[in-house]
Amino acid sequence: MQKLGIIGGIGPEATMNYYSAIIKRYQERIATDKVDGYVGAAANNLLKAGCDF
Description:
By secondary structure, the protein is mainly α. The protein contains two helices and no strands. The longest helix has 18 residues. It is extended, with a radius of gyration of 14 Å.
């Protein structure tokens, strides 16, 4: 997996819009089931690390 460094916007609202645009473009490029699998795996990793949800 490639890693991407992100520089936020001028303020919180600009940063939120920036991240939202990145997420939307990412979801357009891959199937939703892949996103669900990725999020599920990330949640399992947090659970294994001892995080409380």
